[in-house]
Amino acid sequence: MTTTKETCSASTVAVKAGIEADKAYGAVTPPLYLSSNYTFSDFAEPRQYDYSRSGNPTRDLLADALSDLEGGSGAVITSTGMSAVLLVTQLLKAGDLVIAPHDCYGGTYRLFRNLADKGHFRILFVDQNDPIALQDAFSHNPKLLWIETPSNPLLRIVDIQKLSTLAHQHHCLVAVDNTFLTPIYQKPFELGADIVVHSTTKYINGHSDVVGGAVIGKTEELAEQLKWWANCVGITASPFDSFLTLRGLRTLSARLKQHEINTKDVLEYLLQHSQVDKVYHPSIEQHPGHLIAKHQQSGFGIMISFELAGDELDIKNFIRSLNQFSLAESLGGVESLICHPASMTHAAMDPEARQTAGIKSNLLRVSLGIEDSGDLISDLDRAFQYVNQCRITQQAV
Ligand code: PLP
Q1: Per-residue pLDDT tens for 85-103?
Q2: What domain range includes position 388?
Q3: Total domain count for the chain?
Q4: Are both 75 and 99 inside the same structural domain?
Q5: What is the spatial distance between Cα 122 and Cα 349, in angstroms, rounded to a whole number?
Q6: Which is the catalytic residue, given 177, 194, 241, 314?
Q7: Which residues sit with their C-beta closer than 6 Å to ligand 1?
């Protein structure tokens, strides 16, 4: 039976992206077009593609797939998630004000802070769950509201619909970094956003072998502006990275199902553990964003952060004794990772900004892979026991 894209579920759209697109040989999966340039068919007659910075058939398949999944009008595939963030800032003029979350991803914080310091635009980092701070920020005529929900690493939730309505009343564009949830769990355009951003390095590619990004425009006008700037600045992704990411995207929905099982199991384990001070996950009823997450997301998300009851040495011992979790900064791959935000992803923030954002030095963030959850829990269990043993040995000395 033939179905149109509009009637298919997200998992089908992701699997089918670019399938049977090859007109030359009928290849089932799309070919990889590495060529940097394309011939003109005749004098002053360019074909659909002329130069790969501006457009590339392999990259366009990924752009179309992500635009379809998010429900946008067009997408740009960028070389990294950070260049996707940078691309959005090209829509601003000097003097324009950006409102960003005080606890956004450290790299985004660093980019906004430094561009603002050089006069590219003005920036206000605010707690977007604080109505007074928001009201004050909006009284300064902002041009862009940057939203990251759930936030990295504390998984705070903000109400996209409420904030978008407020922003639009002030003629302010809304951009949502949807990296942590992907279009499978959250559809920012349906909640009022104008632009969606992804670090495709994470769940979308899912195999920790590509660094990439995407920016999707809700309207054709925005999508065209973004495409123009991407070509102008020269931050479009390579064909090979696009090919790998398109391949990773096909299994996104299937991967998320196992990620979700592992998250649920590990969460249950951490919540009852005496060596854990606090667990952060929106599925926990006491989480301040639980009800918003339940309403605006179709899954609670698959990252967990927790505070280990202990000092720096305990953190070091815990991390060093893990076998199934690699100590690494990224997230969203099939393999489980552990990260210490204060010394890794959020080291670019000064200690005061980290403190304001609530990122403590005993905070750990885990990206659960798709391994067997029993193996992951046994590994965590062993690491907690090791921390205890080290303490006993230390006391005995
Ligand atoms: N946005 C979020 C939420 C992230 O976590 C990251 C990276 O960790 C980025 C953007 C930047 O992406 P990239 O590392 O692909 O440049």
Answers
A1: 999 999 999 999 999 998 8
A2: 252-396
A3: 2
A4: yes
A5: 18
A6: 177
A7: 80-82, 105, 107-108, 148, 152, 177, 179, 199, 201, 211, 213
